[in-house]
Amino acid sequence: MAYRRNKGGLDISGATGRRPPKLSGSNKKRSGLSTGQSAQQRIAMSRAAKGRGTYIHPSGYGKQKRFSRRGIIVGIIVAVLALALAIGVGFIVYQQTVRNALKPTLDLKALEAELTKPKENDTSYWSVIVETNASSAEQGRGEVASLALVNSNSDNATLSILWIPTDTRVYIDGYGYHTIGDAFSLSGEVGIVEAVEKLASVDIAHYFELNEAGFNRFMSSLEPLSVDVSTASRETLSAAVCKKIFGTSSEQISSLAATVTECIASDATRSEIEAGIRALHGINIDTSFYQTKMPSKTETIDGVTCSIVESDSWNTMVTRTSNGMSPVADSTEVSTNNVTRSKCTVAVWNGVGVSGVANDCSNELKKLGWNVISTGNAAQFVYEETFVVYKDTDDEAAARLLASDLGQGRVVRSAARYSYTGNLLVVVGKDYKPYE
Q1: CA distance 37 to 287
Q2: Quick one: 120 and 193 in the same domain?
Q3: Does 14 fall in a domain?
Q4: What residues of the chain score a pLDDT lower than 50?
Q5: How far apart, in whole angstroms, are the C-alpha atoms of residue 51 and residue 426?
Q6: Residue 62 has what pLDDT?
Q7: Is the overall model pTM greater than 0.70, yes or no?
Q8: Residues 336 and 280 grouped into a single domain
Q9: Are strands 169-172 and 176-179 parallel, antiparallel or unpaired?
Q10: What are the φ and ψ backbone dihedral angles of 413, each rounded to 5 degrees?
């Protein structure tokens, strides 16, 4: 069977007729979004019904100053989400029992069906955080003001935030191409989770949503901060808030978890949030906290200006993050990695039976500086995903680097299951999308 190249790389979907599998978790049946009305009608009606409203001062606490939010609110959301990102045991849906001005009510049954419970041995988890422009829950849901995909890696004790432009162009089932923010307007929390999953090809474990009322309450609980909230950049503010949270005393964690539960709409329970804080308590924000923006370019299509994801760079960024690495390599890492690539010997196997795949992957690795010494076929053409196999623990870091270079690939130890010559083995699966 011949393969063909698309704009995004090698397309071998014809071998199975299915969408390439995600990096982790199981594939789920997508039911799509309701098509009772046109996308434009649904978006317009949703926005009109939600409205921005005016700020309603939540009862139960004293006067608050209204912080300058433009350009910095997402940083606060990141810090809030950091409290629960280390959750790695179980997935219990939180049922909100009382409506209040701080957070909206989620459709937890529908959301639970879309989210993916982490497996017991999983060490890397993804969550979505949404900041809306709604003044309060009583004034509606509003529109997406900021969006981030966040990863917690318990093995490496790292926290990574990948900012996604809200005008990113995506395909929404039943509606065609729209901005990713429209997915929220059309189908709320379920729509935005599904859109992010497709954009990044990952499974989402948790969802967090924060409006202006919740933001103000949470900010008041963290005062004083080491930076000026009204002038600090998003990145500076995010780091400052995370330092405050994970530097708090153990005795204060329960109270902090309760505040998070009050301020943020999520599937996570208070006990899960508290466990998350304790799991990352004391994390070194200066060395283990990463944040960067999704690589994209701006284009105008059919009169609409939007962000177009740069797929290869984005795939590499997501894979690096999943493996507990910084989303983008710094100069020191680049120098070290070049030495690793040149000294590491690699074998490449075709695991899908598509003609030329192993040679294509081999050529791509050689271009990146890897020392490929052989190509061949796997014993069976049954690999749904690409594997990067290593024998000795000394080669694990090299295996993770190779997976990040490819932009896909699950890193596994051989444990005598694979017989090959070299330091590493790449078994090409159906998710393989090489660089052009």
Answers
A1: 49
A2: yes
A3: no
A4: 1-35, 51-77, 79-80, 83-100, 435-436
A5: 51
A6: 37
A7: no
A8: no
A9: antiparallel
A10: -90, 140
Among 266, 234, 122, CA closest to 257: 266
Which amino acid is residue 150, in one-letter code? Answer: V
Residue 255 lies in a domain: yes
The span from the CA of 205 to the CA of 215, in Å, is 23
Q: Are 151 and 123 in contact (CB under 8 A)?
A: no
d(CA 284, CA 288): 6
pLDDT at 246: 84
Per-residue pLDDT at 44: 59
User: Is the CB of residue 135 less than 8 Å from the CB of residue 102?
Assistant: no
pLDDT recorded at residue 415: 82
Within a 10 A sphere around the Cβ of 69, how many other Cβ atoms? 19
Q: Residues 209, 312: one domain?
A: yes
Same domain for 301 and 278, yes or no, is: yes
pLDDT for position 347: 97
Domain boundary among 322, 340, 362: 322
Full residue range of the structural domain in which residue 342 is found? 331-428
One-letter amino acid at 417 equals R
Residue of 370, 369, 374 lying closest to 348 (CA atoms): 374
Query: Could you say which of 282, 300, 322 is where a domain stops?
Result: 322
Number of domains in the chain: 2
